[in-house]
Amino acid sequence: MAKKKELKIKLIKSPIGYSKRQKGTVAALGLKKINQIVTHKDSDVIRGMINKVSHLVEVEE
What we know:
Elements: E1 6-11, H1 20-28, E2 37-41, H2 44-52, E3 57-60
Antiparallel strand pairs: 1-2, 1-3
C-alpha cells in the first residue's frame, strides 16, 4: 500500500481584512496564529482549501 503524503501548512499572513469565507477556510485548516504549522493528510479537499487561501499560507510536502 502506498503511504499517503502529509502536508505541512503554515499561516504566513493574517486573514484580517479578507472575506469571511477565507477566514473560515483558514480556521477549518486549524490555523489560528501566524507562523503556526499544522499537518494534514494530502487529499483533494485539503488541496482545494489551500488553493483558496494560497496567498495566506505556505505549504511543504
